[in-house]
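Sat 14:20. Reprocessing the chain from the morning session after the first attempt stalled halfway. Input below, unchanged.
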Amino acid sequence: MVQVAPAEDKLDFKRVLPIFVIVLVDLLGLTIIIPLLPLYAASFGATPFWIGVLGAAYPVMQFLAAPILGRLSDRYGRKPILLISQLGTFAGFILLAAATTFPMLFLSRIIDGLSGANIATAQAAITDSTNEKTRTQGLGLIGAAFGLGFIIGPVIAFASLALTGNDYRAPAVIAALFSLLSILLTQFWFKETLPVEQRGLGKNKASFTFIAMFDALKHPTVGILLILIFAQQVAFGGFEQFLALFTLGRLGLNAAGNSIVFVFIGVIVVAVQGYFIGRWSRRFGDPRLILAGLLLLALGLALTAMTPKQPVPWYNESAIEQEMGGGRRLPGGTPPTQGVSVPLPPGDESTGWLGLAWLLVAMVPASIGGGILQPAINSLITKRVTVTERGGILGISAAFLSAANAIAPLLGGILFQWGGSSTPFWVWSITMAVLAGLAFLRIRPTEGAPPQTSPA
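Finished this time. Tokens:
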């Protein structure tokens, strides 16, 4: 006979659907920009180091703001905090589209980062709407929204670049429009998930202090998980930040070409976080998922570092130089592409499919591993704290993620510029392998695992 799972074992999709759709629409703006931002900065003549600094601007601001907004969402509800953060994101994208100098790019990312509690607050809303048995799957939907964003967003970026003759401002305008749509959806569709009687229960707690972060690290069960979520994001976040520059110098892929690579990554992440992770969590438990994610990410990063240097068959050096110039000139009239410290493959170098094929194979374990880790770790974190602490602990988790996102581009930029394009990926791969050993020793494989049942 087929065994029917109890209702409490099933995720209430009707309840979480508005959160999922709002996060997806909000993330479309971000995923339109992610494949483009490093090249956008390079078109102003930025070196890999300064591109790394630009990449750090958003998470540094988010690191400071997200825990505060997370605590405020515990006190005043999820909806008003979502609206505030989305308004900041909208303003940031408008400024990004209007940028005429490299410092303006910085300011746009700072504004967006200061209001960047979108994901932490959405995660808190998900935990309000799930129980312990469905939380991993629910949090996985946030990751699935990222994955869908990485499918749809880069396609939109590709189309807007094609229609505007590779004008890098066009995707930023479209990103702002999606941000505006997310504001409207939150205002008119999203229903508050935190009951009034549960608000302010932790009002005597500070919104955020560095002491609170260190105290969380000392927690006997949560501390190790915060270390893991920080370290895996340094690796996977750095991978996302520098993939476009890596493929530019290794394969000769421009912004449109990189958009397609991000679509491929997004398809895998959607499959993992939108479908498989719920089944895997119920079958294997979060600790085993975390170990598998670390090992797969380590493998994918190592394979990426070994990608053969072979331009794609359609590579055209002069066309990429013209695209990245974009009509802008550095002081003295120097075309920006002449000042970029990411050398393009020579135009007379033999082209082929090997490099691209190798990279796409490497993306499979990297994307599966990266797709597993964040929802599995956050799910285990929320199962180790009380209901009144969830928003706060997810805010602290988001702060560690933001700190990792700030360190990753800085570290990656230094390693990329002074050690070569493969060096960051090797460093991150080795780090993940070491942490897999730590996770094996410190997290019990059977913790949180469901009881074994006979097959249906």
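The two ends are 7 Å apart (CA to CA).
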